[in-house]
Design a protein that fits this description.
Shape: elongated
Structural class: alpha+beta
Oligomer: single chain
Number of helices: 4
Strand content: 5-15%
Largest sheet: 3 strands, antiparallel
Distance between the termini: 95 Å
Order of helices and strands: EEEHEHEEHH
Radius of gyration: 25 Å
Number of strands: 6
Bound molecules: zinc ion
């Protein structure tokens, strides 16, 4: 196996570099030799059983940011409860040695799990809904026209009264 190959930390199966999750265990792949296995295999299997295969498709996308590794793992656990697998990435621009647990993390989920993950995190108020749109120009215009229309009616009623 070439150095840097992706392997499943649970079953050890090598995977092509465009894969992100083990096909049989549905847990995030690791780079061969890069990471120590930090939890017992049985625990990983228990986690993997929770994963909903519908949420394992597509590229990894960022769903939330966390202040540090502990907070990121908390978010990760919360997502896993809903069957959504995730991986953590050191947030770009914060260059601290790999051994440090400090530093912000990005929580990444497969594209097919992003909407569900966002719902979970919004529900838990972990993320704010950044998708609140600015009022659309046509909407502002409609309100303006409505105000003008009411004003016109009032003026019309007023002139009727005088006449
Ligand atoms: Zn596996």
């Amino acid at each position: 196996m070439p150095p840097g190959a992706l392997v499943c930390p649970s079953c050890g199966e090598p995977h092509p570099s465009d894969e992100r999750f083990c096909r049989s265990c549905h847990i995030p792949l690791v780079i061969e030799g890069a990471a120590e296995i930090e939890e017992p295999v049985s625990e990983r299997h228990a986690r993997a059983r929770k994963v909903d295969p519908r949420y394992t498709e597509g590229d990894l996308v960022r769903v939330a940011g966390a202040m540090n590794q502990a907070e990121a793992e908390f978010v990760q656990g919360m997502l896993l409860e809903e069957g959504i697998p995730s991986t953590l990435r050191r947030t770009r621009g914060f260059d601290v040695p790999d051994m440090l647990a400090a530093g912000p993390r990005d929580v990444m989920v497969p594209a097919s799990g992003h909407a569900a993950a966002r719902d979970v995190l919004l529900e838990a108020e972990i993320v704010r809904d950044e998708a609140v749109p600015e009022p659309a120009p046509w909407r502002v215009l409609a309100v303006l026209l409505a105000v003008l229309a009411v004003g016109a009616v009032v003026i019309w009623l007023g002139t009727e009264g005088i006449g």
